[in-house]
Each structure stands twice: as C-alpha cells, then as structure tokens.
Amino acid sequence: MQSKRKSLMILAAIVCSAFIAPCYGKTGGKILEGDIKAIDTLSYSLGVTHAVAIKADSVISLLDFNVSKLNDGIKDVLTDGVKMSSVECKMLEDSLSAKIEHRKAEFDKRVAETPTPNSKFKPFENDEERDSFSYLFGNVFGAELKNAVIRDNEVLHYYWYCKAFEDVYADTLMLSGGQMLAFLKRYTAKSPATEMEKAAETAVVVESVKSQE
User: How far apart are the C-alpha atoms of 147 and 127, rounded to whole Å?
Assistant: First the structure.
C-alpha cells in the first residue's frame, strides 16, 4: 500500500508538471476565487485533467475519497488557509497511510486464508478517518499544484479548479472533452506532448463521453 500511495503522489506530481508547468511556469501570477457565474475554462480544464488522472489510478478505488473534503484540502492550500505546516500535513498523511497499509495486509491475509466472494477492502475505520485522509491528500496535492503555479499575469481560479473535481466524480462535466483539450493545447503548445499528456488527454475525452451518456 505504501508503494502504491507513493506511486499516486508521483502520478499527481507528474500530471501537475506535465499540464501546469507548460501553462504557467513558476513565478508571478495569481490565485483567485473565480466568478461562479462565469466559467474559467483553463482552470476548469486543468482541474478535470488532474481529477481524471487521480480517479483512474488503482489506489483511488481502494481509498474512496470524500471529494468534498479533498477539495477543501486543495482550496485551503491555495488560499493559505491551512493552519498546519506542510511537514505536519505530511506526517499525518504518512501516519494514516501506515494504518491503511496495515489494514490492507491483514485483509489480504484473511482473503488468502479464507476466500470470501465479493469481499471488499475497507481502508477506513469510519467516516471521520476518511474525511481526514481526504483533506490531507488535498493538502499534499494542493501544495504540488501551488508549487507549479504561476507565470506573470496568469490566473488560476480555484473555484473552477475545485468544481472540476466535483464534476469528474459526479459525472457531470460542464464542457466536452474536445472543448477542454482544445483550450489546454493552446496553453501547452510550446512543449512537446509527453506520453502522460497523451494518456490524460484520452482520459479526459473518455470521462466527458461517460458524463454525457
């Protein structure tokens, strides 16, 4: 579980660097709330891309994040609303991850000894623990995002970025895959497409089609 968790964080970092760095760079810029009446296509498209990549990772199916708390964690980092330091957040996340890893090992052992049809791993003891882990993961992911943002005169509207996460998990995308990809490509045109970018582009289109079925 620990290795899978690390792979997820690496994935998040790769996706951030693949899509945000070419868009924004690492200096200047602003992070703003965003007008809820007027969609910011870039912020929304980036959020969809990142949410799809995270949702597609095998670890997500085990962790079953509370997306609302995940969004709170991202938003609080972007708005400097996190009271704990990044080190404290990381320590708490590591502690919860260790507990989940232990539970997964015990679950696998039980299943191996006594196979049970349709048995499903439950990573959290209760909703409170699930909420805490979701929020902490949002903190960690938000920190990766913030480190990649932003170039002079560029703006990330966190309302629309977080709204994209909600929409991906609810299968209610506001834009088609084609619309988002066309917009993203305008901001990534200076960098050659990587395999991760191509894979994420495909995932965005698939997710968009699913949401409109």
Answer: 30
Tokens for 30, please give them. Answer: 């602003």
The 10s digit of each residue's pLDDT in 153-167 is 677 889 999 999 999
Q: Is the pLDDT of residue 200 over 80?
A: no
Q: Give the C-alpha separation, 30 to 155, whole Å.
A: 5
191's torsion region: left (phi>0), alpha (psi -120 to 50) or beta? beta
Check if the beta carbon of residue 170 is closer than 8 Å to that of residue 206: no
Instruction: Write a three-state SS string for the chain.
Output: CHHHHHHHHHHHHHHHHHHCHHHHCCCCCEEECCCCCCCCHHHHHHHHHHHHHHHHCHHHHHHCCCHHHHHHHHHHHHCCCCCCCHHHHHHHHHHHHHHHHHHHHHHHHHHHHCCCCCCCCCCCCCHHHHHHHHHHHHHHHHHHHHHHCCCCCCEEEHHHHHHHHHHHHHCCCCCCHHHHHHHHHHHHCCCCCCHHHHHHHHHHHHHHHHHCC
Q: What is the model's pLDDT at position 194?
A: 47
* pTM across the whole model: 0.71
d(CA 134, CA 92): 12
19 neighbors 203 (Cβ within 8 angstroms): no
pLDDT tens-digit profile of 80-128? Answer: 888 888 778 878 888 888 888 888 889 889 888 888 888 888 888 899 9
